[in-house]
Amino acid sequence: MNVLKLKAVVSEAANPNDTAKKTETVDLGNGSDVVYIQRLIPSEQSWQWFHYLDNHIPWTRPTIRVFGKSFLQPRDTCYVASPGLTELTYSGYQPDAYSWDDYPLLKDILDAVLKALPGSSFNSLLLNRYKGGNDYVGWHADDEKLYGSTPEIASLSLGCERDFFLKKKPCKKSCDGSDEPARKRLKKSSHGDQHTFRLKHGSLLVMRGYTQRDWVHSVPKRAKADGTRINLTFRRVF
Ligand SMILES: O=C(O)CCC(=O)C(=O)O
Ligand SMILES: [Mn+2]
């Protein structure tokens, strides 16, 4: 991780009674940043949540459309949202929204996330289940209009550790003065334009500011990841 060059701030929890919550803030530049709290939720609590969600959430593996082709989404999913919100559509798929009242545990998890992020507000949740190293999420940005221009997305990880990659989007025009096509320029991007986080059991990663406008992220396949990982991304729909 290229944290040294990037004004990374590492701090320990102020309350000595609290589990040490190593927090790292990476300034991505141009009004984007990522906060990573490595141990937000104690391990035992995280495993309880993991097993409950693994067994009780109505997981589905929908067919999605990417570049005009239909694929089975390479992970299970479930969507929860407050009533009356604009419906979510991604990759040609519109998930049915379950209610927070259907799964009261999700409200407890939301409270724990909000405790770490005072002043934040979330009204929807996309859950993902990666059933092994072949499951993944490809490069994308959560830049749907319904999240507004500077969405805060808080992502809690439970279970098997996986890598999370962030990569700067190519400039639309030749913003660096180059005549090369965008795809070629992306390949040449410098190290400051890429970051990797190892997402631990019980960790929280928060993307803020213009991260969805200027960056893409992914959780790639990993041959050695043999366990299940559950991920909860809390979002605000406007
Ligand atoms: O599983 C993760 O950590 C990321 C999931 C994600 O990016 C998404 O659901 O939009
Ligand atoms: Mn995403």
Quick summary:
By secondary structure, the protein is of the alpha+beta class.
Percent range for β-strand residues? 25-35%
Question: What is the domain total for the residues?
Answer: 1
**Helix residue percentage:** 10-25%
What is the fold named in CATH at topology level?
A: Jelly Rolls
Bound molecules: 2-oxoglutaric acid, manganese (II) ion
The count of strands amounts to 15
Q: Helical stretch count?
A: 4
- How large is the radius of gyration? 18 Å
Largest sheet: number of strands, sense, barrel closure: 9 strands, mixed
CATH domain class: Mainly Beta
The CATH architecture designation is Sandwich
Structural class: alpha+beta
**End-to-end CA span:** 33 Å
GO molecular function: broad specificity oxidative DNA demethylase activity
Keywords: Dioxygenase, Oxidoreductase
InterPro entries: AlkB-like (IPR027450), AlkB-like_sf (IPR037151), ALKBH2 (IPR032852), Oxoglu/Fe-dep_dioxygenase_dom (IPR005123)
Family: Belongs to the alkB family.
What topology does this entry show?
Elements: E1 9-11, E2 23-29, E3 32-37, H1 43-56, E4 63-66, E5 69-72, E6 76-81, E7 97-98, H2 104-116, E8 124-130, E9 137-140, E10 153-159, E11 162-168, H3 182-187, E12 194-199, E13 203-209, H4 211-214, E14 215-219, E15 229-235
Parallel strand pairs: 6-7
Antiparallel strand pairs: 1-2, 2-3, 3-13, 4-5, 6-8, 8-15, 9-14, 10-13, 10-15, 11-12, 11-14
This protein binds 2-oxoglutaric acid and manganese (II) ion.
Structure description:
The structure is a single chain. The protein is α+β, with helices and mostly antiparallel strands and 238 residues long. It has a single domain (4-235), classed as Jelly Rolls (Sandwich), CATH 2.60.120. The protein has helices at 43-56, 104-116, 182-187, 211-214, and strands spanning 9-11, 23-29, 32-37, 63-66, 69-72, 76-81, 97-98, 124-130, 137-140, 153-159, 162-168, 194-199, 203-209, 215-219, 229-235. The strands form three sheets. A nine-stranded mixed sheet has the order 1-2-3-13-10-15-8-6-7. A hairpin with a 2-residue loop joins strand 4 and strand 5 (69-72). The structure holds 2-oxoglutaric acid and manganese (II) ion (MN). The site of manganese (II) ion has 3 residues, from loops.
